[in-house]
Every structure is written in C-alpha cells, then in structure tokens.
Amino acid sequence: MAQRLNKYLVASLFFCVLINGILAQNNDRVGDKEYKDRAQHERFYRRRNVVSAWQINQLKNGALVVRLKTNQALIDALIKSNNIQLAEQKRLEILGVNLNIVRAYYHLYNFSKVYFIYSNFTDTLLKGARAGFFLDTNLAIDQTIRLNEKFYLLAETDKVYNSSIGFVKEENAGFQIEKGSPSGIEFPIVIKNKYGHQLKQPFPYYSDLKFSPKIDPVVYVNYYGKLIPYHIDRPRALNDKESYLINNNLIRLVIPKMFAYQKFAAIVDNLNSNLIYFYQANPSPERSKHYLDAIPFLY
Length: 299
Description:
Helix content is about 40%, strand content about 20%. It has eight helices and twelve strands. It has helices at about 1-35, 45-60, 70-80, 85-110, 120-125, 170-175, 260-280, 290-295; strands at about 65-70, 115-120, 150-160, 160-165, 180, 185-190, 205, 220-225, 225-230, 245, 250, 255. The longest helix has about 30 residues, at about 1-35.
C-alpha cells in the first residue's frame, strides 16, 4: 500500500512539474508576441472594412505619392573613403532603378493622380509643403509640379509587417513607430498612410507578381538620350557594349530583376487593377452602421 502511495505521489509530482513547464513556455510565447497595443486593436475587424472603403474612395479623387530611395548615405560614405568609382556606380544603379519605377507608374497607373519624391522629402510633405520637390520622369525636381489633392497615400518598396500598429487617432499617429514581424523579402510596392504606416486589409496595400515576363539579361535605360546598360541580378562577362565607362574604367551596372522595366511595369499594372476592383466593390462608407465609430481613424 505504501509502495503504491509513493508511486502515486511521484506521478502526481511529475504531472505538476510538467504542467507548470508547459504553462511557463506558453506564457513566454505570449510575452514574445505581445507587441501589439490592445487598445489600438479594439473592434479591429469591424473598423478595417469601413476605413479601407473610405481610403479607396479618397484615393480615387486624391493622389498616390511614390517615395524613391537615394542610397545617399552609402554614396557619401564611399566618397568620404575616396572610393569615387564605386560611389558613382551605386549612384547610377539607384538611378536606373528609380527611372524604371517612375516610368512604370507613368505608363501603367491611372487609378488616381501620381507624384514622385525622394524619400528624404517625406517630412517636408507631411508638414504641408505642396511644391518644390516633386520629380519629373527624368528624376529632376520640377518646380511647376504641385500636389493640389487634399488626400494622399504613400507607395514605396519595403517589407510587409505583421504590424504592431492597429487603428490610431491622427493626433497620435505621428508618434507611432511601426514594428512587428517583417516579411523575409521586400515587396515591390507597399502602400502606407501619410505617416508611413502600412494600410490594413482588405485594402490591397501591397503588390507583387509570382510570375515574371521574359527579361533580357542586360537592359538599357534611356537617360536624357543616353542608353545606360544594366545587368539583371548579376553581371555577365565584361564587354564594351554591355558596360559603362566611369573614370576611364569599364564597369558593369547591376539592378535586381524586380526593377527591370518589364517586371515593375507588370507589378504596377497589377496594383492598378486591384485598386480599381476594390474601389468598384466598396462604395463610400458613410451609410455604414460602423461609420461613426471609425471617424477618428479616417485621415
């Protein structure tokens, strides 16, 4: 009898230790994932439909502002270390990327007005400036381009987040930093609000293509009448025709396949179609029973 009792006590003790261990692990997992502000996610699923419908209707009569990267910090660091040739190579590579992005939007995007800025002018735009920094299709600042639309969204190449940010009132939006679990790769187009926070589903806030049109291993970008050769993804064997002369040295300029014009144009076309479809399926939400609840988050 005593022997059976001892076995029972040992088994009970083992079971308690096991349960405590499992609970502790679960608590750790909850703690790891508890990066979201619960207040921002209240009524989340109810609000997102109204907010998304409002945003797509505003965008139709508003503007999409495309933010372009400059790689200026890298270029400045290379110049400072006297690596002038590599600095010029990186400048030309980001030039090719940005020219293809701008021209793809210019030719394939027609859902709303579209403007282009370098990313370092985002704060200038947010503070109310509406001219003096917008770019033409050759990436030159055109003083005559003015954003007259009251509503705008941002578009750029970025990772997509399982966002830490829910719905935030505008008075607090400028202080919110988006965190969370990022995607492993960058998406060609991610749409964000004017504070730089990615939009919520069901708004089609990012665009990519699983298929790819046929792209030559070397493509040419026209810059003020001069054709600049760019190798796609990796350089091929060096030759005069597919190289660029910098400081009397032939170099191979490389851009990712995602930014070849044919590929990016197809991605922009896909985005444009998704926006049109979503707009047609979502009339302005003023008559929705949840509209009043969503008003503080419409900006």
